[in-house]
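User: Fold this one for me? It's DUF58 domain-containing protein.
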Amino acid sequence: MMLAQEILLRAKKQVFTNKSAGELSKIRGEGLDFCEIRPYEFGDDIRKINFSASGKTGELQTNIFNENKQINVVICIMLSSSLHFGSQCLKSETIAQIIALLSCSSIKQHNQTQLVFFAKNKQKLFQLNNTGDVLRAIEAMLSWDLLNTKSDFQALNQHLLQSKKSLTFIVGDFYHNDDYSLMAHKNEINALVVRDKLEETPNFSLELDLVNPENNSTIQANMDKRLALKYYKKLKTQDDQLFSHFAKHGINSGKLYTDEDAFSKLSQILRQ
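Assistant: Here's what I get for DUF58 domain-containing protein.
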């Protein structure tokens, strides 16, 4: 397993030095937005004089720009016991990488950044102002005791409906088809589905004891090709419904697998 410090250093290198890192997300807020042209007044910045408009009106005109505006960025992690799984690396480790990349990107753009972990009967909030805060958030993700942990969609929904409008990233494995329409009506939502390829096509061709990590119950199943295909078709139908729901409500979404490069795949999803 990658250490928190290693994940952060890799993310900082990718976000702060990569030329395309500014396109990592749709986060906006840097720069000056044009607002209007008005007559020049004493004390105005002469570099903003609009000579074309001045020539037409016969008096000095200056461009007026909106002030920089910080964006509220909220990164929501939907914790569940199923995140403690992975054939290449754990899904929780991939999510830690996503936390590092999104947080560093948002901090780079001087946005107000918040990270919230959602689990049944337990929430943990981090205000991310610098990379030290990001490191603590990554450590919290990697050390979270995920076994016996259940997700809490209602807590997520309530938090986003009661908070200020934000650019929101919801990260989890999304094995439940919940209704995201209300939060999407208020916020700009990005849904990042983290999966492992082995869990989508579990063809082991042998009899296994399958343990439910939420309650430790066990069932025996012969995970042969026939059962794996049946499981895959059912999951695909569920995922088609999920992504159709996202598209209907204007939610940008994409799937990241644990064997993929998180930075490249995240950039690809957020440019859609």
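One thing worth pointing out: Residues 225-248 form the longest helix (24 residues).
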